[in-house]
Amino acid sequence: MDCSLPKPSWSKDMRLLFDQFMKKCEDGSWTPLPFYNYKAIQNVHDFITFTHGCSPTTAKLIDKEQLSQAQIFTESFKDGLGFEYVMFYNDAEKRIVCLFQGGPHLQGIPGFLHGGAVATMIDATAGMSAMRAKGLVMTANLNINFKRPVPLCSVIVINSQLDKIEGRKLFISCDVRSVDENTLYSEATSLFIKLDPEKKA
Q1: Distances from the Cα of 69 to the Cαs of 38, 66, 72, 115, 145, in angstroms?
Q2: Which of 22, 24, 124, 139 has the most CB atoms less than 10 A away?
Q3: CB neighbours (10 Å) of residue 145?
Q4: Helices (H), 61-114
Q5: Are 38 and 44 in contact (CB under 8 A)?
Q6: Angle, alpha carbons 166-176-154 (nearest 5°)
Q7: What does residue 65 show for φ and ψ, rounded to 5 degrees?
Q8: If we measure between CA atoms, which residue out of 58, 1, 50, 15 comes closest to residue 155?
Q9: Res 80: pLDDT
């Protein structure tokens, strides 16, 4: 099941934005991305190979049985309670837009979304931008300026932009805004590293 498809738990704002972006997809300028899962990573075995090549000691700590039972962190909540999101990609602009609705189990201070939940979605959105450009990557640095708290269960729009590539380094900026884009909640810059199984640590 593709969790990025509309669900009963989606709010009116979430569904409206989804429909607007699906309309933009009709001319081919935008593409809806399937829900982030292990299949979105081009080949999870690339990661295992990379880990063995760079750090055999660390690789031994990866339990293959546990890995087979693992699931993405953002999938760990029942519908409507945690992370509800969908991403759209614009290849010409090297940009990803994520529509995110944070459920009641993501509360920080009463009535507002936990900053860690916002950070998770910034990392996921920026990371997907990097993956679209270079394949398997890992976050090296994530710097977030929180401007305003996000109301719990509201919908926010995360814009992620690939700024530049220097060898294996990908620099990506991101901002988090309200549905009407008038309220800036957060700004972020990030550095991702393209994983290279041939590159030794």
Answers
A1: 12, 5, 10, 28, 35
A2: 124
A3: 10
A4: 64-69
A5: yes
A6: 150
A7: -70, -45
A8: 15
A9: 84
> Could you count the other beta carbons within 10 Å of the beta carbon of residue 122?
24
CB 92 within 8 A of CB 29: yes
Task: Give me the residues paired with residue 184 across strands.
Answer: 177
Q: What pLDDT sits at residue 57?
A: 53
Position 132: which residue type?
Answer: R
Burial annotation 82-93 (CB, 10 A radius, 16+ → b, else e): bbbbbbbbeeee
In angstroms, rounded to a whole number, what is the distance separating the alpha carbons of residues 169 and 106? 31
- Token pair of 196 as six digits: 């290279």
Residues of the chain with pLDDT under 70: 1-4, 35-71, 73, 76-77, 197-201
Contact assessment for residue 59 and residue 51, using Cβ atoms and an 8 Å cutoff: yes
What residue type is assigned to position 32 of the chain?
P
Length of the chain: 201
The span from the CA of 22 to the CA of 102, in Å, is 21
